[in-house]
Each structure stands twice: as structure tokens, then as C-alpha cells.
UniProtKB/TrEMBL annotation:
Domain SWIM-type: 1-29
Organism of this sequence: Clostridium perfringens D str. JGS1721
Origin superkingdom: Bacteria
Entries under InterPro entries matching the protein: Amidoligase_2 (IPR022025), Znf_SWIM (IPR007527)
PANTHER family, sorted: AMIDOLIGASE ENZYME (PTHR36847:SF1)
Keyword terms, alphabetized: Metal-binding, Zinc, Zinc-finger
Protein name in the entry: SWIM-type domain-containing protein
Keyword Cell membrane: no
Single annotated GO MF: zinc ion binding
Pfam families: Amidoligase_2
């Protein structure tokens, strides 16, 4: 839809002006009433409303309208009953209509890295039949298995790096095959291994308030992220203190940094200022700051060769970015997302960050579908606070 047409039944079949057109026109009408400095933000709000209405009409995102913050007993019951067997590894619409591209880096120790590479090469998944050197050139559409000094020893250990991925059955099939092949050749994970997730920043773009929501989410809920990051190991790895140091202090500091957000260069400046050029925070923005790749990297996660765990990690990272785009408490017709926006607006670190309340808030904010909440709840249950 745009300000002149809509896809809803009232407009298409009755040729009547609908509430969707009214909302967009009202938002666009603000542009004529404000000065040039505010035009960018006002136009963006109008675009957000239009995009939200289009998503709702097309039904791209499923929403169960279930909130643990309204149903603490549900949280307690689900937490008590959930286990790995109750979580399904999915292949279709895993990210609930989220079109963001993403990537993963899977570190492992042990095993025969060259044998893993050979089998994956024969299957058409990786670009080379042998383990490559660190940061070797990528081939579009192909995974690669590289040496990594933190986990490689002789012919053992390495890092399996994905190409740019989309939420398609092929992606999830490849991840499962990679896990199976790696384990069959003796690969495993331990406290040295990380499992980084990259999410395209397109949903944040040059939208100041989306970045503000993203930074507040990390500021308040980073301890929840660290707990989920433990994966199958029971707690986030000890070397996370160096390789994935808490980003929440930088997220908090971002509230006091003034920056323009009118173009890509402004985004790069913001990323450089907030990250201080350090890629070893739990949230790495240096790829954006240095114009290498338009991705937010989540470095918190332990390594894993469990496809369900890898899928949960990707769901969580993508869910945080998605919520940062959509969880507005105003300028939205969607009352359910407005409720999520108010969760973020009203939360703070003052009542603790390692609590059941914060876990419930985080799940409600990040996941419209209950089954996605359960995928992360299962990981919460297997792990301790850091």
C-alpha cells in the first residue's frame, strides 16, 4: 500500500477510504507541519506505519498474543516441563516472516578438519575439500572451513563459516548436515568455542529510534542473552570475558551520545563511537563502523554442533533486531506490538537483570510466537546465570 491505495478488503472491494490509508495520510501530513530537521524522522514514522499495515494485510508474521508477563503460571509450568525432546528442529518459516539475511561462525575442537571439509565439499556445501587458512576468501553461496588459532591444533579443530543465509529449508538442511558430518569425524565443542551470529542491519537502517530500542534491549537484557548463550554447556564460556565482553555499559552510554542518522555515513560514525572500535564486545558493530559488512554480530554464544541450539541462537539474534524495529509504544496501529513497546519502555536494570521477571519480559518482547519463546526457554533451563 501507499498513501493513495491499499490492499485491504474495504479499499479493494468497496472502494472506500480505510483506516489504513487514514493512518498513513495522517502521518505523512505531519511532514508539512514540521521543520526540515524533523522531516526525516516523521517521514520514517509514516513509512513504518505503511510497512506495518502491509505486513498485517499479508499475514507475514504469526502472533499468538501470549505474554508470560501476564501469565507467570504459564512460565513456571513451561519451564518445569520443557526439554530438548519437546523442541522441534524446523525447516519452514523458522524466523516467522523475518526476511533479514544472516550468517553463522561455528568453532569446534578435535576431529579431522580435512575429512570434514572433504565430505562437505563432496556434498556441494563448502568451497574447498580441505581446511583453509584463517579469513580465506569466500565463494558466494558456499560455506568454508577455516583454521582458527583459538581452537585449531594440527589437523584438528577449526571454524565453519557460512555464506549469507536466508530463512529457507535449504539453509536449515545445510546446518543439520554440517553438524552431523562434523560430529561423525570427531569434532566437538568445549569452553574455547564460540558460535557467532551475524544479522543484517537493514531493519535498523538509519532509524534513530530503532537503534535506541536495540541498545536498550541489550542494556537491560544482556544477562538473559548470556544465560541463553550457554547452549548445551551449562554456562557461557569462561573466555567470553575477553572475546564477548559485556556490551551493556556501551549500550547505556549510547543514551548520552548525540548523533545524526540521516545517511549511511552517520550510521558508521554512530557504530564507531558506540563500539569504540572494539570487536570483542558481545555485540560487535565494527563491521558497520568500518564499512566491511552491514551486520550486527552477536558474539555471546558458546560454540555448538547441535542444530537445534544453533537454530535457537539465530532465532534469538534475529528476534532482537526484529523487536528493535517493531516494538514501538506509539505511532503504531498494532496494539500487540504496542504492548511489547511498553515492556521495553517501562523496564530498567534497577530491579535486577538476573531474574525470572527479566526472562519473561525478554521472551515477550522478542518473540510473537510461543514456540519460539519455548526454544529459548529450553536453553534458559539448561544454563545458569553467568
Amino acid at each position: 500500500m501507499n498513501e493513495n491505495s491499499c490492499e485491504c478488503g474495504q479499499y479493494v472491494y468497496r472502494n472506500e477510504c480505510c483506516r489504513h490509508l487514514i493512518a498513513v495520510r495522517e502521518a505523512l501530513g505531519e511532514v508539512a507541519e514540521v521543520d526540515t530537521i524533523n522531516n526525516v524522522e516523521t517521514t520514517r514514522r509514516a513509512r513504518d506505519i505503511r510497512d506495518e499495515i502491509n505486513r498485517n494485510i499479508r499475514g507475514e508474521e504469526q502472533d499468538d498474543n501470549h505474554f508470560y508477563t501476564d501469565n507467570e503460571v504459564d512460565f513456571d509450568n513451561d519451564f518445569a516441563e520443557i526439554n530438548d525432546d519437546s523442541i522441534e528442529y524446523e525447516y519452514e518459516n523458522v524466523l516467522n516472516g523475518n526476511k533479514s539475511t544472516f550468517g553463522v561462525e561455528l568453532e569446534f575442537v578435535g576431529g579431522d578438519a580435512n575429512a570434514i571439509a572433504r565430505e562437505l565439499y563432496d556434498l556441494g556445501i563448502v568451497s574447498s575439500p580441505r581446511r583453509l587458512g584463517y579469513h580465506s576468501r569466500s565463494e558466494p553461496g558456499k560455506w568454508k572451513l577455516e583454521r582458527d588459532g583459538s581452537v585449531s591444533d594440527g589437523d584438528a579443530g577449526g571454524e565453519i563459516v557460512s555464506p549469507i543465509l536466508k530463512d529457507t529449508p535449504k539453509t536449515w538442511e545445510q546446518i543439520k548436515v554440517i553438524c552431523d558430518v562434523a560430529k561423525r569425524h570427531g569434532a566437538r565443542v568445549d569452553q574455547r568455542c564460540g558460535g557467532h551470529v551475524h544479522i543484517n542491519m537493514e531493519k535498523l537502517d538509519t532509524a534513530r529510534q530503532r537503534w535506541r530500542r536495540f541498545f536498550k534491549t541489550i542494556e537491560v537484557y544482556e544477562d538473559c542473552i548470556y544465560r541463553a548463550a550457554g547452549g548445551d554447556l551449562g554456562r557461557v564460556r569462561s573466555n567470553a570475558r575477553h572475546y564477548a565482553t559485556p556490551f551493556s555499559p556501551r549500550a547505556d552510554e549510547s543514551k548520552y551520545i548525540r548523533f545524526n542518522m540521516d545517511n549511511d555515513e552517520d550510521v558508521r560514525r554512530m557504530a564507531a563511537e558506540v563500539s569504540k572500535g572494539n570487536r570483542y564486545y558481545g555485540i560487535n558493530l565494527t563491521n558497520i563502523a568500518r564499512d566491511r559488512a552491514p551486520t550486527v554480530e552477536f558474539r555471546h554464544f558458546n560454540g555448538s554442533l547441535n542444530e537445534k541450539q544453533i537454530q535457537a541462537n539465530i532465532k534469538m539474534a534475529a528476534g532482537i533486531i526484529n523487536a528493535s524495529e517493531k516494538a514501538r509504544f506509539r505511532d503504531t496501529e498494532d496494539e500487540i506490538f504496542k504492548k511489547r513497546g511498553n515492556i521495553l519502555k517501562n523496564t530498567s536494570r534497577l530491579d535486577g537483570t538476573q531474574t525470572k521477571k527479566k526472562m519473561m519480559e525478554f521472551l515477550d518482547l522478542t518473540f510473537p510466537r510461543r514456540k519460539d519463546k519455548n526454544a529459548i526457554l529450553n536453553v534458559f533451563k539448561k544454563n545458569e546465570w553467568r
